[in-house]
Amino acid sequence: MPDGQGAAQAPAxxxxxxxxxxxxLTLAAMLxxxxxxxxxxxxxxxxxxxxxxxVSAGLPRAFAAPWERVGLSAPIPVAEAVRExxxxxxxxEHEMARRFPRIALVLPYPFALAALPVATATTVYGAxxxxxxxxxxxxLSDREREHLTAACDRLALRLQRAAExxxxxxxxxxxxxxxxxxxxxxxxxxxxxxxARLPYxxxxxxxxxxxxxxxxxxxxxxxxxxxxxxxxxxxxxVPWLNDPIYEDRYRAALLSQxxxxxxxxxxxxxxxxxxxxxxxxxxSVRISRARPVSEMTRAGxxxxxxxxxxxxxxxxxxxxxxxxxxxxxxxxxxxxADEISPAVGSQALVVLGSRAGRLHxxxxxxxxxxxxxxxxxxxxxxxxxxGTQALNSGVPAFFDSREQLERLYxxxxxxxxxxxxxxxxxxxxxxxxxxxxxLGYAQSHHFAADEQAxxxxxxGLIAQALERALLYDAKLQLAQGLQAALLPSSLPPLASxxxxxxxxxxxxxxxxxxxxxxxxxxxxxxxxxxxxxxxHNVTAAGLMGQIRTAVRAYTAVGxxxxxxxxxxxxxxIDLGTExxxxxxxxxxxxxxxxxxxxxxxxxxxxxxxxxxxxxxxDLAGGPLxxxxxxxxxxxxxxxxxxxxxxxxxxxxxIESPGVDxxxxxxxxGRRFAAAGxxxxxxxxxxxxxxxxxxxxxxxxDVALLLLRVRPLG
Length: 713
Hints:
Elements (H helix, E strand, L loop, with lengths): L21 H13 L3 E7 L5 E8 L11 E3 L5 H8 L3 E3 L2 H7 L1 H6 L4 E9 L4 E10 L8 H23 L23 H9 L4 E5 L5 E4 L1 H7 L3 H4 L4 H4 L6 H13 L3 E7 L3 E10 L2 E8 L23 H11 L5 H16 L3 E8 L2 E8 L5 H4 L11 H8 L3 E3 L2 H7 L12 E9 L2 E10 L7 H38 L10 E8 L9 E9 L2 E9 L4 H19 L4 H14 L6 E9 L4 E7 L5 E3 L5 E3 L18 E5 L5 E5 L11 H15 L4 H15 L7 E8 L4
Helix pairs in contact: 1-5, 3-16, 11-12, 12-16, 16-17, 17-18
């Protein structure tokens, strides 16, 4: 072993001897002390908040592969133990599914787990966990708690000494050595003869599922020579067993330490029964001919109802990843309908939420008659129904048949939905109920324990996705409502000016920003303004509303363009905000054929003459609003003739990553020249099409205001 490691049995008063596998010995002692059958020790990585698995014992590391490196903020037991500096106890698969759905999703088997921090009073060095079979009592005994806590405390002290002596701890080989054969057993020759006489197949698998022994009956039943079986995984050596469903049974037996069985079809039509007897050193497998299929509906995982079942780890993980893509509530409903319902064999789906003490239907699929579902919308949570009970109690409910459901809820007789079995899954996120997911099955359906565990685990993931979606929809509704209130709902009709405007929010953030525009008629003249407050949030939007209101007020009292800009600049400074704003203000005088413009750090407007030529207007201007209280904003008078079109825009229209702004402005001018004769609404859409067609993300919001001078009279 590497230098710098010490023995677990070293006295507390002196450093542990160098060269001994400290972590391995400590973990082995922990497992022996509390009769646990697997576990691992994590060390805190240097310079990052990550726990790294340093040694594991009892089970192949592949069982815990997703958690070899764990962030301290991760919602799993070892990370929570470190964050809260206490022992974390999980008493079984249902509690695991409720509290740590990520674990239960990958390992939906009956087992208990304890996780503890490895830390002194001042320093965290890592964490450890141990597991027991599903037969362990639901509570951790005081003796077990004391032994585990003391072992982790001793390990922390030894790690502290190693750190003080600059002896880095390294990862150690996992502890998977099979136990020695008990004394007094048969010799190998006699044992082989005895097993050969058995009328059924018998083989031995190590912890990795590799065949270490197989008798002649095994080879005959599997139709595979013993030489091809030895040293290989059973499901890899036998082609018709090469299905994750059978590997899953091996994992379930090892982790739960319960006898597990399944049946499999050996082509063309022979059914075989497999019974797995696990121990901490491996599994013994008994293989025999199975009863007729009609008699073994409970014995194996075959799909007797023709519906797909959620049974593979990879399938479950793909469904979990799909849920992370959901943005709004309807996205969640659609993903559950498209991905989860078919996988678990359900034909109908309802997602219920709660608001103001009542149930609300957030979405449903699979019911031809929508009225069957909608009658539950607005139902008080005090009503005794399966949906309200699951939501109020946080406990999932599974009904194998219509008779079972109606026996507990007689009122359901009056509201049939045509289904034959139901799973009511409470959706609990951040410790509070956010809704209920109801899966309906067309025929009666038996919910096995492992299927209940998988569905319960999925309900936790659905709940997290739904919580995010509800928050997203609320924010989106707020953003859209606020933006709509701050921007003009329509542009005023003017005798001499035709106008069109567009606003596109940034695709990153809250769909709200500080870009604004306005068109005002005052004292027989028209004034237009466009601006951009930095930021894409509620603060920017609120300041934008104040600036737009101020510009309208200064215009209404008849201030000249340069005065409007100076007054708005002083207002922004007086507000004490740290945000700045660009702005372009112009006063239109079609009778004289001119526009007087003032600019504060804003992109230059484009002018398209009636002959189709486009010019970038080089305007005099001042600094951004909100920087200098004494700033002045000189004006520029631009001639306008009938048929001319002005394009005022914010920088989101021409700025994009990797594109030179001069090139983008030239491209905008070319498109403006080519399409400038279109009606203004069509022209506005044309000028906005480039980024939309390319499917690009908009890092900034975009405002566009087009003004066309009509002929006099």
